[in-house]
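Section 3.1: Structural characterization of target chains.
Under the original work plan, the team committed to producing a structural model for every single-chain target entering the pipeline before any wet-lab resources were allocated. The record below documents one such target. The sequence was received from the expression subgroup and is listed exactly as submitted; it comprises 480 residues.
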Amino acid sequence: MKKRWLAIIAACSFFLGAGGVYTGIQWVDSREQEGSPGTKGEARHDTSMNSNHLAKVEQVYQLIQEAYVEKVESEKLIQGAIQGMIGTLKDPYSVYMDKDTAEQFSDNLDSSFEGIGAQVTIENGKLVIVAPIKNTPAEKAGLKPRDQIIAINGESIEGLDLYEATKKIRGEKGTVVTLEIMRPGASKPFKVEITREEVPILTVFPDIKESDGKKIGYLEITSFSEGTASDFRKELLRLEEEKIEGLVIDVRGNPGGMLSSVDNILQQLVTDKKPYVQIEERNGNKNPYYSGLKKRKPYPIAVLIDEGSASASEILASALKEAEGYHLVGVRSFGKGTVQQAIPLEDGSNVKLTMFKWLTPDGNWIHGKGIEPTIKVKQPEYFYAHSLNIEKELVRDMNSEEVKIAQQLLSGLSYGTGRTDGYFDGQTERAVKAFQTVEKIPATGKIDQKTAAHLEAAVIKRIEDERNDLQLQVSLKTLK
């Protein structure tokens, strides 16, 4: 009976593209068992108990059909009623999709899709980016976890539900979408144009790092798809053949995936002394699930997490932290701890309804709170710098948000501006000239679009240099 849970999907967010949308931890086992949550018997009981209320709904439906001043399509009324019921739950992970939308978002996690390559969710009524996918247009455009999307192609998202918003963002390869972004800490939003592409879902990226003369295995997991667990096993065996003396698992920016994948990975890493996850039912019953592993790996393990690590990533991180005592390095994770079941309706539409919670090995519910690292490490400030949007040249004595961003970028590149408060003083001008001289562009001391592009390219290059990745460097040191 417990193996039915291995089909749970744990992507906390939505893939923006023509290829698929995934939400929450989603139980997709279709078998019905007596006494199990969501059986037909229980559903019939609830329907019978509420028949009087349903009669009132039907009465209002008939009233609108027969007496409203304008004709209204019956399908529109029915969909509105369903959406209204789900809306009263105030749960962004419980959603209704009509037939067309369900078909558009029916691809599996291991497929490719056309879009910008980011995951989003609704958080406190706001459309928030969980994480951009590695090597996608969203990542290249500089989108970051916790960015809030406030407009799409110049139109406010106010009043749109998650599916309506994602339909506006996704689109065919080669087309452009303009997003207006409000970033935490910024005083005003900025716009970014992103050209949609085909986004392949490659999920495991192996490497070997050197630390104090030791070989440390490194496995980055960008999502938990159908083939992730087998790829992880294959790559881990290759690393072990290289005689690694430690392992870093990187789930930063990983929004989740299939529990069957994370389960198979945890089967290789977590012993049977504690459950790797617990599923809590509506009545409070908790079902623990165990690995069959008897012996730990002969080397230490560390896990990298950040604010974009969500759902299945949090299952992995919490299991390795609480069941095995391994270090988590980085910053607090996203915080997604509920379970949705996808229920197809007769006309091809479906409802994804929150039905369970998942708990950590020690019984903690991390929903809305996230997982705290055992070793807290923030990246250098320029890792979090905003995109530089130049509508007019930045010059001496200006005072603006764009000047502040430019100062942060210059400081991150070791060009001392002396201040980062947004006032363009003489020291900032000298720093700009020094940067322009090194970049072999006219040393005007003014920041135009060309200088801004060089600044952002230089910062991206520095970020991509793993020597500047403080979280990674600290994780390697912990394995000593």
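Residues 64 and 70 are 9 Å apart (CA to CA).
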